[in-house]
Design a protein that fits this description.
The structure holds two protein chains of two kinds. Chain A is built from eleven helices and ten strands. By secondary structure, chain A is α/β, with parallel strands linked by helices. In chain A, the strands form two sheets. A six-stranded mixed sheet of chain A has the order 6-7-8-3-9-10, sandwiched between helices. A four-stranded antiparallel sheet of chain A has the order 2-1-4-5, with helices on one face. In chain A, α4 runs parallel beside α7. Chain B is mainly alpha-helical. In chain B, α3 packs antiparallel against α11, α3 packs antiparallel against α13 and α12 packs parallel to α14. The chains are: A alpha/beta, B mainly alpha.
């Protein structure tokens, strides 16, 4: 990737403030996600992590500031506009359409696309990546195990052919043995050149695969550094990495 | 909906005993009625038949009679099924019962009345030209009913999106009254008669013993249901509809326009009710502002019997309800010595509803709702 390309962020927050009623959630947040990078957002409960994701996708409208996609201010554009332009999310707890088949879930991921060949190719790619998903393609997705559902959720998001994949707590609710596999999958997706923006409680694991990280505290970005420096940061080790 | 299911290990209360008694009573009634029916088919003069018929011999049900009842049941049931689909789909997507849906059916029947009268004046409601004319009439009735349902959603229900479910439910009762009274205002309170059907429509197909008009109703209903099934299961819009029914937030994350999908749901449900309306007019040849009430309630019952939210269930529920309504009076009630059993058709329908709620509250094909879905 050329440096000129790499310097232009896909998604940006410029001085974003959001409120739920009178409650001030995000306070002057500035973020930028560049093509192909893997960044994670850390923070305790109620620090504004989920709101950040929802604001990026347009499910929450900021009270001030700008959400910028490819240089364009998209504050008043609907979610579908952003999905069409390559931003999508693997939601918290996967949230598959349980009564629909695995294949239908994947097809809905490509709902806004019209390139039949591209969709067929991506479906094949996902089947290669997750052979288990192919075996179960005609089953109702609600009958799948937690790990399999995680694969379908990722596959569904990839079917949108994203440039940025937002992930909300990808290891939440997974059996401990699956958490490791899950991070390997995230790395695998990242290696295909898709930028990943991950919100994660498991800070150690997340930082070990990330390029950069932000730390959010009661709606403010308090740390913004490379993953390595964050891992070495004594304050962070104390508050998030479980060291006394 | 799980009121009839007792928590395991909990002591039986008086209510539990009452419900158990009711279940045993209803099922006992069905079993004894059926046995008595079989007995009097074999020997009309058996002791039980004589006892229930004041010493007279009971009368056998002949095969043509029985066949006639089945065809009547099927044609009625097909219409209940068509209407039930609308209740079920809207419930699936918005989680409330649209009690004004019966009125959409009535609007379809009224449109059919206006069209058929005009065509009759032109002399086209007869002979073989009736075939293209009826197809055109079905199309117009479908469009008018669809428009009614879509306007209803836009004006009455969309502003209430996000409010507790009880509020659109009560609103739907208001919408129902509004449409009934608007029709009375426009067309007067009296019953309106359809022009007589072409003679060939009233004839019976020799050998089969089925009236042509009932066959027409069954065929049109079957084609409509097949079309709907294809739409919901196989098309992209249908898939979006099922996704919205399950999780609106994630559906919009997929890029689905949730509002437009809800409108589509109302439109498709309205179309089915419109088709049922014109078929009803051809079968019973009369329509009045309150025509939508009883078929509407019965179709709602059909949706519950089949498992609300389940489209196959709504169709099956409609057909079994129509069948029960046609067959039960002569196959269960008459052998038990009930007088004037055909007057009790409506009672049969609602008894069936109670029975289903007692025995399988989720309906015949319904899935058990998770606590989250029920909230």
């Amino acid at each position: 990737m050329s440096t000129a390309e790499a310097t232009k962020p896909i998604l940006e927050f410029r001085n974003i403030n959001t409120h739920y009623g009178a409650v001030h959630i995000l306070k002057d947040v500035n973020l930028a996600i560049y093509p192909g990078e893997l960044v994670c957002l850390l923070g305790g409960n109620a620090s504004g992590k989920s709101t950040t994701l929802k604001t990026l996708l347009g499910m929450v409208t900021p009270t001030s500031g700008e959400v910028v996609l490819d240089g364009e201010v998209v504050n008043d554009k609907p979610t579908s506009y952003r999905v069409e332009r390559g931003v999508t999310m693997v939601p918290e707890n996967r949230r598959l359409f349980k009564r629909l088949s695995v294949l239908e879930n994947l097809q809905l991921g490509a709902y806004l696309r019209n390139d039949k060949d591209g969709i067929a190719n991506d479906l094949e790619r996902i089947y290669t990546m997750f052979p288990r998903v192919k075996e179960r393609m005609h089953q109702k997705s609600g009958t799948l195990s937690g790990g399999e559902q995680q694969m379908v959720a990722m596959g569904r998001a990839l079917m949108a052919s994203p440039r940025v994949l937002l992930m909300d707590e990808p290891s939440m609710g997974l059996a401990p043995a699956l958490v490791q596999t899950n991070f390997e999958l995230i790395q695998q997706i990242h290696e295909e050149g898709i930028a990943i923006f991950m919100v994660e409680q498991n800070a150690n694991m997340a930082l070990s695969i990330a390029d950069r990280g932000w730390v959010l505290q009661t709606g403010k970005v308090v740390l913004d550094d490379s993953a390595d420096s964050l891992l070495a940061n004594p304050d962070l080790r104390k508050s998030y990495l479980g060291e006394a | 909906m799980t009121a009839a299911v007792r928590v395991k290990g909990a002591p039986r209360t008086g209510v539990d005993w009452f419900l158990l008694l009711l279940r045993v009573l209803l099922i006992g009634l069905i079993v004894i009625g059926l046995l008595a029916f079989i007995a009097q088919q074999i020997d009309p003069g058996n002791a039980f038949a004589k006892w229930t018929h004041d010493g007279e011999e009971a009368s056998r049900l002949t095969w043509p009679q029985f066949r006639g009842l089945i065809v009547t049941g099927l044609s009625q049931g097909a219409m209940y099924g068509l209407i039930a689909l609308g209740y079920s789909m809207v419930y699936g997507v918005l989680g409330f019962i649209n009690f004004a849906h019966g009125e959409v059916f009535m609007v379809g029947a009224f449109t059919g009345f206006i069209m058929s009268t005009k065509f009759d004046e032109a002399g086209w409601w007869d002979g073989w030209i009736f075939i293209p004319v009826i197809l055109f009439t079905i199309l117009v009735c479908t469009l008018v009913a669809t428009a009614t349902a879509v306007i209803m959603e836009r004006v009455a229900y969309r502003p209430l999106r996000g409010s507790p479910r009880l509020i659109p439910l009560i609103t739907s009762i208001g919408v129902s009254f509004f449409i009934q009274n608007a029709v009375i205002l426009l067309f007067g309170p009296g019953a309106k008669g359809y022009p007589p059907n072409p003679e060939w429509l009233e004839e019976t197909i020799p050998g089969l013993g089925i009236e042509v008009k009932k066959l027409l109703v069954i065929i049109v209903a079957a084609i409509s249901m097949a079309g709907l099934w294809y739409f919901v299961e196989r098309t992209k819009t249908g898939k979006a509809m099922r996704a919205v029914a399950e999780d609106k937030e994630i559906a919009s994350l997929m890029g689905i326009d949730v509002n437009r999908t809800i409108v589509t749901t109302f439109a498709v449900g309205g179309a089915m009710a419109g088709i049922a309306g014109i078929l009803w007019g051809i079968l019973f040849k009369s329509v009045i502002a309150t025509t939508g009430f009883l078929p509407g309630i019965k179709a709602f019952t059909a949706a519950v019997v089949g498992g609300v939210g389940n489209l196959g269930g709504a169709m099956a529920g409609g057909v079994s309800l129509g069948g029960a309504e046609a067959l039960a009076p002569l196959m269960l009630l008459e052998p038990l010595g009930v007088e004037g059993p055909s007057q009790l058709r409506d009672a049969v329908v609602f008894t069936l509803l109670i029975l289903v709620l007692l025995v399988k509250p989720t309906g015949l094909f319904g899935e058990r709702l998770s606590a989250e879905d029920r909230a």
